[in-house]
Please model this.
Amino acid sequence: MSHRVIAGFAKGRKLKLVPGDTTRPIMDRVKEALFSIIGQNIVDAQFLDLFGGMGSVGIEALSRGAEHVLFIELDRRAAHIIRENLVHTQLDPQAEVRIMNAFDLLRRKPDTEYDYIYVAPPQYKGMWKEALAALDSNSGWIGEYTTVIVQIDPHEWEEIPLSTLTEVDRRKYGKTLLLFYERAASPAEPLDTPGVKA
Model:
């Protein structure tokens, strides 16, 4: 299966895969659909890729004009592949790769406000729910214009109680479900969804 950068500065560059089945590579057609939804909002954005894998989503964000991407990846081999892919696409000056547990990061105070937080952990381990709950409880991660995007298998989905975040959109592409969350409006103000366009 070929994985490549679809559009932007590094369009057409092929990306290395992480050997084995420890990561969840996004299909190119799903990635293309995702960035069609985000549109021009990606330009100059701060992007956090919580479970970096091979780096495909964050690299696509950079190629399309994101200002900076922070990749979090616990597996050293995967982190090395992300760095190789960043060098290959010449996007490494705009990125940082940290080898660490994503949940350790989410317990801290964020060092910047992110426009997009991408959550695509290994399948069928409930980690997406844990990550979403961690973001919801540490509301410093969720700015007024932050969009949290979760990538899961549709069979993994289940309702979870949230107070800071609210679901604003969902899209299904075969065996991939994308869920979009933003900061819930207070009762005194209407919900605005600047990060997600239909």
Remarks:
- The chain has one domain: 28-183.
- The first strand starts at residue 46 and ends at 49.
- The chain has five helices and seven strands.
- Residues 76-89 form the longest helix (14 residues).
